[in-house]
């Protein structure tokens, strides 16, 4: 084993050490053989670590030191809205009255939690311009599938069984087509125009009586606002389809344009993006779905309602698509999002969008001389540069991304959307200062210069991280997905 | 607009507008058509200062009856277990909780290694070859097991035991609807899956049989008897399992499960009104390339150092798009970390001890209830839950318990018509003898009353 390897927790194990403090057994001891059939009593213990509490803390502290978060430094990862995660959110979510309540408790013992959820729904209705919101989906993709299942139920309830297709733009997030498949639809791709927007002519070509829905982000994944959104809505609605809003990019349009007013019938939000539920290293998220009135009957069960001043769950929903998740969604993330919205207020949310968009445009204009900018117009909260100029000099976007690590930055999203060659998708968010943006821009400009003068330093990057580039082919060819002692 | 999360000053704004070459921020929104432009501000509550909002929300939280103040006998899939205090300290390290999915491995080794360790611990407990990096929760993980099985076997029927959590069964049905998969329920016999019925129902169209272990009623299903029935028909055995119980029970892997899923909430994750928890998904090696969600694999860097990367990504939505095996993207990474820390703290010895305490304390509750004249519905082997027939409505019972600072069990009549007047009582290691005795005393009060009337 290499001397610089970071130890696995299993390698720190020593028989006889413990890291727990269980209650003393205060009832009479009984041998398990008296209570369980022999073949169901475990004879081979799970090989879990045997370490002290300090061992645990040192181990995970060492791991955290090998990890970059928003609190470590700038994280302009396009499409992910890596904004600051307010600390009050963490405090509030840990209040015993929120953290230590059971989902099946009598409703009258959790009225505070239900009041919060109901008020969050009311706020999200206003923010999205939709008629009703469910907080049940656990994440964005889960919300997409939930929304599509509702659209499916809507069509089927009308006896309209031929709507088998969901249209997605070629620039869409990968979850869109995947969610369509899981909901039982076939995916049809609509092309983008040379303006970076949905090609209306192509849309007219692909729509028809088999169109169940068009899934769209607006602004789209290039960070551009789909100006012809009303025309698109008309095209879809005319053939009887529904318009689905992927809310991944909502940070760009709060208080500027609401999906409900743009003609969208179903919306999902990513509370872990726009509304600061932390990303947690990949989750948990929360993906509420908003709908217009005609889709109301199909909302997943149960629906939270308010009668007089009492909050209760309504299970009597005969046309509902059913349950999409046990219990009522990722409550802890919903508490965080609610805390954030209440911290910002209406003027705060407006400022969020304005500064997010100002930051993105500022960066785009300062970087424009040094990289190719495929779509030269005002962007919204993010923009996409192309590294094709640098590629001609033998340096790929991947190399530049790795070089950014040496400057202490998390790189932008790369090679996405798929319709930009050597794409770099940059989303600064509103919580970053001008000084931070300037320092990052300077680093990007220096890298562009290095590509011309000293490409090796970029091609061989990173040079300062705890580990250099990893052999991903090896990882995939002979997968090692768990620790085996002795190997 | 000044706000502690927004560093923009008017000077910054002026300079930035100049660089862009515009006069006002509004111009940046000129591409939004007039017809859809939102004017003004949202009609939502005004912003509150940090301290006043904290106070308001603390008061709202205090309206809820939490397990710090009440002794809970409520389980039904979510449990009040020992949460090692160190768990919250680890997951509060913001290098973890403010990071995104580890797509840049050079600066995400901490998260990647933590997930690799999680995968290992889940594999160990379940006795499966491979575990993924987490799912949303136990219910959706079971639904994904159904989809995996249908895809793998090219069969369109799922048999799910009625002893599987009712809400999980509901989720399985919703997912199955999307895939046009038929879901049929296997009836119960004495609080277990009816194996005679299973034998009659299973055929060559069944993709998978879903069993919960221990089941929704706390009973330990005999997987050893179920396994051959399932495999003889060429179906996959999907087991939904409380991983904490596996400290004492023979692992599903050893008993022949093809897919084992469940929720790691019992390991250090707060009940949090039902979420976020932490689904897990484990399989045999032959199903490795069909697993939904992210997988972390070991590899080496250019200098030969061990490192970890997201791997086998060709299964996933961002590569396969409409051909992906699942649409999952965000998972429950931070809670997988929490569960890892709890599993590490409990360790090899503590996971056995905690599981045993649950069984023994539940046994104590069962004995005391019987002694007090109550009827226990099922006499089979149990983990940490039992079903008790009540002399009054479960609601009446729970209201009374609540007055004595106890949260009663789950009213089975809500999900099973045949079990009206039955309560599912959970006893974890957290419940003291004193609390158990107090619970028994309350529930027995009505038995005495009934006895007195009958006499």
TrEMBL record, chain A:
Which cofactors are named for this entry? pyridoxal 5'-phosphate
Show the taxonomic lineage: Bacteria, Bacillati, Bacillota, Bacilli, Bacillales
Name of the featured protein: Probable glycine dehydrogenase (decarboxylating) subunit 2
Sum up the protein's function in the record's words. Answer: The glycine cleavage system catalyzes the degradation of glycine. The P protein binds the alpha-amino group of glycine through its pyridoxal phosphate cofactor; CO(2) is released and the remaining methylamine moiety is then transferred to the lipoamide cofactor of the H protein.
A Pfam family name for this chain?
GDC-P
Which family is this protein grouped under? Belongs to the GcvP family. C-terminal subunit subfamily.
What domain of life does the UniProt record list for this protein's source?
A: Bacteria
Q: Provide the GO MF annotations for this entry.
A: glycine dehydrogenase (decarboxylating) activity
What class does this enzyme belong to in the EC scheme? oxidoreductase
- What gene codes for this chain? gcvPB
What EC number(s) are associated with this protein in UniProt? 1.4.4.2
Domain (Glycine cleavage system P-protein N-terminal) spans 34-300
Sites of the modification N6-(pyridoxal phosphate)lysine? 273
- The residue ranges of the Glycine dehydrogenase C-terminal domain are 353-454
TrEMBL record, chain B:
UniProtKB keywords: Oxidoreductase
Record Pfam families: GDC-P (PF02347)
Q: Which GO terms describe its molecular function?
A: glycine dehydrogenase (decarboxylating) activity
Catalyses: N(6)-[(R)-lipoyl]-L-lysyl-[glycine-cleavage complex H protein] + glycine + H(+) = N(6)-[(R)-S(8)-aminomethyldihydrolipoyl]-L-lysyl-[glycine-cleavage complex H protein] + CO2
The record's section on CDD domains has:
GDC-P
Q: Does the keyword Oxidoreductase apply?
A: yes
**Residues in Glycine cleavage system P-protein N-terminal domain copies:** 3-441
| Superkingdom classification of source | Bacteria
**EC number(s) on file:** 1.4.4.2
**Family as reported in the entry's similarity comment:** Belongs to the GcvP family. N-terminal subunit subfamily.
Summarize the protein's role.
The glycine cleavage system catalyzes the degradation of glycine. The P protein binds the alpha-amino group of glycine through its pyridoxal phosphate cofactor; CO(2) is released and the remaining methylamine moiety is then transferred to the lipoamide cofactor of the H protein.
Assembly mode: The glycine cleavage system is composed of four proteins: P, T, L and H. In this organism, the P 'protein' is a heterodimer of two subunits.
Q: What is this protein called?
A: Probable glycine dehydrogenase (decarboxylating) subunit 1
Q: Which gene encodes it?
A: gcvPA
